[in-house]
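Predict structure. Chain length: 228.
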Amino acid sequence: MSQTILVVDDEQSILDMLQYNLEKSGYEVVTAGNGLDAVKLAHRHHPDLAILDITMPGMDGLEVCGRLRAELGTPVILLTARDSEIDKVVGLEVGADDYVTKPFSPRELVARIKAVLRRAKAPTPGNGGRLALGAVSLDPLKHEVRLHDIVVNLTAKEFTLLEYLMRNAGLALSRNAILDHVWGYDFYGDPRTVDVHIRRLREKVEPDPGTPHLIVTVAGVGYKFQME
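Prediction complete.
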């Protein structure tokens, strides 16, 4: 059964080009020219992945991305002519899986789509037993994290990241090692996604995210879960 991709862009020429190349690669394609229609189509078709242009009138791609991630868990690749630092960071903040800057090669985009879809369907790494380090406990079977016995709501990626850090507590883990384990060896996106997810994780498990003492930065290396 072919996978369905939702493509959203307010430029018809780009929609036509993407639809042609994606259908040629074996995907079912649903298109929308604005964010509002995109959300409606996503709820109707439940696409396996969405490609969203950031700059659109009305509801832009960032807002659509946030809604699709929150409401349906749809993997998202952002497509934009922008190439600034802030745009990339904001894209990662709202949950984008990857970020492609125009102009782009259709072949490269298809490769990134395949990589994101593989990661979305891959089993969650680490199926060991329950972990308890200080005030934080993590139960893989229940997919549950507690802080001082209060349930903490984490995304699937945040859960996998925290589990990896806790199972290697006390060890300095490089960003590349974290990317390989949590996102997969075929990750094409921005390595700073690790920093973004670490920051969001700290906001949920650290008493004082501005001065973290559980998930600490190791200068020049990456991060580690500090054993108390």
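Summary: The longest strand covers residues 4-8.
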